[in-house]
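Notes from hallway chat w/ T.B., transcribed later so I don't forget. T.B. wanted the structure written out for a chain they're using in a teaching module, and asked if we could keep both sequence and structure tokens in one place. Agreed to drop them here.
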Amino acid sequence: LRTRAAEFERTTAEMLTAALSTEDAAARPAESIVVNAYLSAYTAALFAWADGNGERELEELIHEAFDLLER
């Protein structure tokens, strides 16, 4: 499951980064880093929710992970 999640995360990050590109310019490396950081945080929250048997709300864990990125 974790391997498949990592594959999905990488593929999704590539798609989002490509969407940030224009005909005139590729996405900047910083944009790629931000996309990857948020997807990693989302995946970590998802795993924390699953590992905790759903004791905490998934949305709460995602907000917590994203809040940490915004510091």
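Follow-up for T.B.: DSSP finds three helices and no strands in the chain. Might be a good example for the class.
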